[in-house]
Design brief:
The complex is a heterodimer of chains A (451) and B (81). With 451 residues, chain A is of the alpha/beta class. Helix content of chain A is 34%, strand content 23%. Chain A contains 15 helices and 21 strands. In chain A, a hairpin with a 2-residue loop joins strand 13 and strand 14. By secondary structure, chain B is mainly β. Chain B contains one helix and seven strands. Chain B has a single domain, classed as Roll (Ubiquitin-like (UB roll)). Chain B is 10% helix and 35% strand. Chain B is globular and about 40 Å long. The chains are: A alpha/beta (451), B mainly beta (81). At the A-B interface, strand 8 and helix 3 of A face helix 1 and strand 4 of B.
Chain lengths: 451, 81
């Protein structure tokens, strides 16, 4: 039988990546009680996944050491699935957790953008960050042939990491153009502290082909990946490989901020100079406010932590440092815009929604994300559209505008544990417009179900 | 603490390094994680608990995201890909 835990903290931080760790530590500096909650088995987020065991990673180990010595209470392996005024509801392996807080800091990080192409659902076709996460989690790929594809600096990091793990990296397929890639390299050399990292990647990747204007058009295999067809500067060729690590840069995890009522701007959380969102007492740090990488996430987290505990002076001291790293957001945006050809990779029968197996041809006819959900079940599976909604946004130009509770599939007992005063009553009510549409389409629904 | 941990994937013994996730054990066993609603084999995509492609049954409990669960000795993992 599941238990229900009730926790009360001055500051609740959601997401234990670099931004969340920095925020929690800064907030606890003032002696406030702080909880740091994360859905993974260990703190660190994606970039520091597994780094708590690797003291050689200097930056990470210093932060982990500070975290371990601090009074911050860490709740691992718990997904926050609901937020109402002053309260979070989460679910862990064996319990439902209610957290009452004074201030909230959202450090929910980012995920990869995946774009559908024929064969992208085959086992061993993974995200670029996805492969790296599995490597950090213990996957052995020594001797395996790997193609890294998509866009963004993560491809370089993943290729370097996979090579270090003993893989044979056949090539990196980068969809952006060579001039953009070159400008990106030069600009990163000028960002303080980034020159060494940029040069190290260049060294680590020596000998690995880096193809620009290049992207995967199809993956092939019988029950698992055997080869990938790539388009490279207009020519297609096929490469035999064991893994395809493919991701099209990062998108922010804005589902929880959206549920909290935080105003968004161009799909990122809008914050003021103290990292405060449009909701008083709710702060946001790291990738959800702009994809800018580790250093920016850390400094934003610190600012949020200090601001949330009324230590504005300390927060202010960090503004200049933040401004230096904020430049990276623009550099990344300029370097890796998605090319329109990527919209044409999916064939009519290529699945877009992997949870409900909804093909591209069932989506085209619909005019909106909501209609696609209602009629085709796109985005209605366990991932709740986290994979297909951003893809559909890119493919069809649909606006994704809702985040409904529960934010993740949860046990009934966890739902029942939400106190009635914070139950998502209003949000669960069907909006009039949808109700009308449902009534209109009722007959259509029924006939579809029968068939 | 031992350096490795042994689990069973569809009854087959698999040894992975201590701290490895269940997803890693499934991949190491050669199995695929789940069958999709139309019967296609699927395995991890995101590796971070977002995509739900790596769902397996762990000690009889179905629909667990295997990339977010660490292997424990003698775990019984059922991967139905």
């Amino acid at each position: 039988m599941d238990s229900v835990k009730h926790l009360r903290f001055d500051v609740a931080v959601v997401g234990a990546g670099p931004a969340g760790i920095a925020a929690a530590l800064a907030a606890s500096d003032s002696g406030k009680s702080v909880v740091l909650i994360d859905d993974n088995p260990a703190a660190g987020g994606q970039i520091w996944r597994g780094a708590h065991n690797a003291p050689r990673h200097s930056a990470a180990s210093i932060w982990f050491e500070r975290l371990n010595k601090s009074a911050v209470q860490i709740v691992r392996g718990a997904r926050v699935f609901h937020a109402a005024k002053g309260e979070l509801a989460a679910e862990s392996d064996d319990s439902a957790i209610q957290i009452t807080y004074g201030k909230l800091i959202l450090a929910t990080g980012a995920r990869e953008l995946f774009l559908p192409f024929p064969g992208w659902t085959l086992p061993n076709v993974m995200g670029a960050g996805g492969l790296q996460a599995l490597l950090k989690s213990g996957l052995d790929i020594a001797g395996k042939r790997i193609v890294v594809a998509g866009t963004g600096p993560l491809l370089l990091a993943v290729a370097a990491y996979a090579r270090k793990c003993g893989a044979q990296v056949i090539g990196i397929c980068e969809q952006t153009t060579r001039p953009r890639m070159a400008r990106f390299g030069l600009k990163m050399l000028l960002v303080p502290g980034k020159a060494a990292e940029t040069l190290r990647f260049a060294y680590d990747l020596r000998g690995i082909p880096h193809w620009t204007d290049c992207w995967p058009v199809a993956a092939f295999g019988n029950r698992r990946l055997e080869s990938v067809r790539i388009s490279r500067q207009g020519q297609t060729s096929e490469i035999e490989c064991d893994y395809l690590a493919c991701g099209f840069h990062l998108i922010p995890n804005i589902e929880l901020p959206r549920m909290c009522g935080c105003r968004l701007r161009e799909n990122f959380v809008d914050v003021n100079e103290y990292q405060q969102t449009s909701v008083a007492g709710t702060y946001c740090a790291g990738e959800p406010t702009g994809i800018g990488g580790l250093e920016l996430a850390l400094v934003e987290g610190e600012i949020a932590g200090y601001a949330a505990t009324n230590w504005e002076d300390r927060a202010k001291h960090l503004f200049a440092k933040r401004a230096r790293y904020q430049k990276i957001i623009r550099i990344l945006k300029d370097a890796f815009p998605l090319r329109p050809e990527l919209k044409n990779l999916a064939r009519p029968d290529t699945l877009v929604c992997r949870c409900e197996d909804v093909p591209h041809e069932s989506l085209r006819e619909h005019g909106s994300w909501r209609a696609a959900k209602l009629h085709a079940r796109c985005g209605m599976g366990p991932c709740q559209g986290r994979v297909c909604a951003p893809a559909a946004e890119f493919l069809f130009g649909w606006e994704i505008d809702s985040a409904r509770p529960p934010l993740y599939p949860v046990r009934c007992s966890s739902l029942a544990a939400i106190p009635s005063h914070s139950a998502p009553r209003n949000q669960l009510e069907v909006p009039d417009e949808v109700e009308r549409r449902n009534a209109r389409n009722h007959h259509k629904f029924r006939s579809k179900r029968k068939s | 603490m031992s350096e490795s941990v042994s689990v069973r994937v569809n009854g087959k013994p698999v040894t992975v390094r201590a701290g490895a996730t269940v997803a890693v054990a499934v991949l190491a066993s050669g199995a695929t994680c789940r069958a999709s609603v139309s019967g296609q084999p699927r395995s991890p995509l995101c590796g971070m608990g977002t995509c739900f492609e790596c769902r397996v049954a762990i000690n009889g409990e179905p629909q667990r995201c295997s990339c977010q669960v660490l292997c424990e000795a003698d775990m019984e993992i059922e991967a139905n890909g």
